[in-house]
Design a protein that fits this description.
Cyclophilin; Gyrase A, domain 2
């Protein structure tokens, strides 16, 4: 079995394998025999994305360990297929917009497409793109279908789709380029169920024609529905912060939810991790405690009781407004003590775009799937904060874990202003060889404007000349990292940020180095970006 090892970032490696069976076999072996220093393994159609700790695991040692486990995996290819997994049924209304097109591409009728799709159970291979989005393999051999040439900006939740030799159900409304053949009313992802994912890797899926007589599916029981909001205040809460105004967007964020790739859940978390840690250090909290992430200022926080806050990140003017109407400026990147009735106001940033607010003792926010982070693409975690909400503070961190407030020891970050040009370090790969030679020249020498369509999912860039590809064929979906520079068909790159899809089907030419991810998160719309290559593309082939 041949394998290719390709760089995916400065702390990630893409392992390319011959087919899905070998990929799944190696993934199972890695689950049984984990490699010390490996943080996450994301399986896909013919690849495994392996993220690792560089301080604990050198790249040559990682490659050697993967080769050794691949030798074990080769003997297991196809063995798991003999033990069928749980069977779940999905009724489908076959009325998709692309159904006639699919029939035409296959040279058959719409009725025959439906019969082929429902003719035998599919195997749930791996999760990706979004929570609950599971790639189903093993359907009719005729299903070899291209993605749409122009992806839809919004695919409705429940859409049943085909691409390549896979089928899937979109769990939530999202962009997508698969061929839509129908829709189901079965929720693929529901946090109110004991098992949020209706379909999980290893399951078998039988599609049913919902128009056929007698088709009825019993859904798993749900817990009582609750909004994704912090818990109600208790009378014992020592203090609370009232959200007077949120500005454009204010979210709860922490270090993210890791180790959940099997459910299609990406880490998410604060975009500027250094500022999150700095805010907590200033407040005397453990550095991973959750904070408020504010976009472009406008946040107003009123104290009920007493509390100590710290604000880091973007260069925003801070104003303390006392209950009696007096007000005065206070420094950022320092502790601010609030008395009862005091209001802290974050103005519009002079530089950077995202501010981080920590409170001594922590924000009392209940975790979702092990984290308080808000994933805006997957809709996991607390909802965006609203004016009028009150958050209990001061009891989330045990007293013994609190430390004295720490002053800022290092120089304050110099964030970009609107119109500035920002240089970001880039590691080439994993699909640099899919692009024409001139693409690298354009990537590094041409300025790329940050467009208003940018958000926590990704920074959309626009250049005078698109990046030309030398390989025109479709790329099977594969794992992507935060910082990946993915290039859609139009040649205009998208820089993935923390809420990006776990897998993607467009080639990635390179990835922003981990030490510049925080800088990328602070770039305003209208700035120009230039990429500087710090590590070349390489490939290692193992026979």
């Amino acid at each position: 079995m041949s394998m290719r090892f390709l760089p995916a970032s400065d702390n990630a490696l893409l392992v390319e394998l011959p087919d899905l069976a070998h990929t799944m076999a190696l993934h199972r072996v890695l689950a049984d025999q984990p490699i010390a220093g490996v943080l996450e393994v994301v399986p896909a159609a013919r690849t495994l994305l392996v993220t690792y700790q560089r301080a604990a695991l050198a790249l040559p040692d990682l490659v050697a360990a993967l080769r050794a486990r691949a030798a074990v995996a080769n003997a297991q290819v196809g063995v798991a297929d003999a033990a069928p997994g749980r069977l779940v049924e999905i009724p489908v209304h076959y009325n998709g917009e692309d159904l006639p097109t699919v029939a035409e591409l296959l040279g058959t009728t719409v009725r025959e497409v439906i019969d082929r799709h429902t003719g035998q159970p599919w195997q749930a291979a791996f999760a990706g793109f979004a929570p609950g989005f599971v790639y189903l393999a093993g359907g009719h051999p005729s299903f070899q279908l291209p993605r749409r040439s122009s992806p839809r900006t919004r695919v409705p939740a429940g859409s049943v789709a085909l691409a390549g030799d896979f089928s899937a159900v979109y769990p939530a409304a999202s962009p997508g380029g698969w061929q839509l053949i129908g829709v189901t009313e079965v929720p693929m992802w529901d946090l109110q169920r004991p098992e949020p994912a209706y379909v999980q890797p290893g399951f078998r899926v039988q599609f049913r024609d919902a128009s056929a007589p007698g088709v009825h599916i019993s859904l798993p029981a749900r817990r009582e529905s609750e909004p994704n909001q912090p818990p109600a205040l208790s009378e014992q809460a020592p203090a609370a912060i009232e959200i007077v105004a949120t500005g454009l967007q204010t979210l709860v964020q922490d270090g993210g939810r890791h180790g959940m790739a099997g459910l299609g859940v990406s880490p998410s978390g604060a975009l500027d991790m250094a500022s999150l840690r700095a805010a907590n250090r200033l407040a005397g909290n453990p550095v991973g405690q959750c904070v408020l992430e504010n976009l472009l200022g406008g946040l107003q926080l009123r104290c009920h009781g007493r509390a100590t806050l710290a604000v880091t990140g973007a260069a925003v003017p801070l104003t303390l407004r006392a209950a009696d109407g007096r007000q005065w400026p206070v420094p950022s990147h320092a502790c601010v003590a609030l008395d009862d009735g005091d209001t802290l106001v974050l103005g519009a940033p002079h530089a950077g775009v995202r501010s981080y607010v920590a409170v001594r003792g922590g924000w009392q926010v209940a975790p979702v799937l092990g984290s308080c982070a808000t994933d805006t693409l997957a809709h996991i975690g607390p909802d965006a904060l609203q004016a009028g909400q009150r958050l209990a503070v001061g009891g989330a961190v045990p007293a013994h874990a609190l430390q004295a407030a720490q002053a800022v020891a290092e120089p304050l970050p110099q964030w970009p202003c609107t119109g500035d040009e920002v240089v970001l370090d880039v590691v080439l790969g994993p699909r640099t060889d899919w692009f024409a030679p001139e693409a690298l020249t354009l990537l590094t020498q041409q300025p790329w404007r940050v467009t208003p369509q940018s958000n926590r999912v990704g920074m959309r860039l626009e250049g005078a000349q698109p990046l030309p590809r030398s390989v025109a064929r479709e790329l099977p979906s594969e794992g992507t990292v935060t910082g990946a520079i993915q290039v859609p068909i139009n040649g205009q790159p998208v820089l993935f940020l923390a809420d990006h899809p776990l897998t993607g089907g467009y080639p990635v030419i390179g990835a922003v180095a981990s030490h510049h991810l925080g800088l990328a998160a602070q770039i305003p719309v209208g700035c120009s970006v230039r990429f500087r290559v710090i590590a070349p593309f390489f490939e290692q082939v193992s026979p």
